[in-house]
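Researcher: Please translate sequence to structure tokens.
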Amino acid sequence: MASSKWQKSSYSGANDNCVEVRQTSGLVELRESDDGEVIVRTAPARFAAFLQGVKAGEFDHLAI
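Model: Translation complete:
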């Protein structure tokens, strides 16, 4: 599978300080847009579970 382009949320501000995500080689990769050297890789099912938690508000207490 060919690598896809990095995607950032439409909620990101104009300062480009955001988290980007892409799917490549059967994994989901995440990185910070302002420091792209560190990439976190996870399985699509784990990323889907994380997104469900975000949508359910499980991590709202971490938001500033």
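Researcher: Any highlights?
Model: The longest strand covers residues 35-42.
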